[in-house]
Amino acid sequence: NMAGLVQIGLVSDVDRVKRRVRVLWPDSGQTSGWLYILQQSGAWLPDINDIVLVLYLPAEDGDGFVVGRIT
């Protein structure tokens, strides 16, 4: 099942040391676990309230990664 592999959410927490974030899913009001940021030039890290695109691996309880910010 491919549903839910790509999602859009709102950054709610940022861990700058480990380069990961938690994302709020507006439709459900739930928050993700900690998600790593895919490597981008300039060591980009999203800010709280940024809207981001998240990609999950197609496995049960697969890891998720923030692909980038949506502007």
- Rg (CA only): 11 Å
Coarse morphology: globular
The SSE string, one letter per element, is: EEEEEE
Q: What is the total tally of β strands?
A: 6
**Which quaternary structure do these chains form?**
single chain
Q: Which segments are poorly predicted (pLDDT under 50) over 5 or more consecutive residues?
A: none
Strand order of the largest sheet: 1-2-4-6-5
Secondary structure class reads mainly beta
List the helices and strands and how they pair.
Blueprint lengths: L5 E10 L4 E6 L4 E2 L3 E3 L13 E6 L7 E6 L2
Parallel strand pairs: 4-6
Antiparallel strand pairs: 1-2, 1-5, 2-3, 2-4, 5-6
Explain this structure:
The protein is mainly β. Helices cover 0% and strands 46% of the residues. It has a five-stranded mixed barrel. The protein is globular and about 30 Å long. The mean pLDDT is 88.
In a nutshell, what does this entry contain?
By secondary structure, this protein is an all-beta fold. Helices cover 0% and strands 46% of the residues.
Task: Write out key terms for the chains shown.
6 strands, five-stranded mixed β-barrel, globular, mainly beta
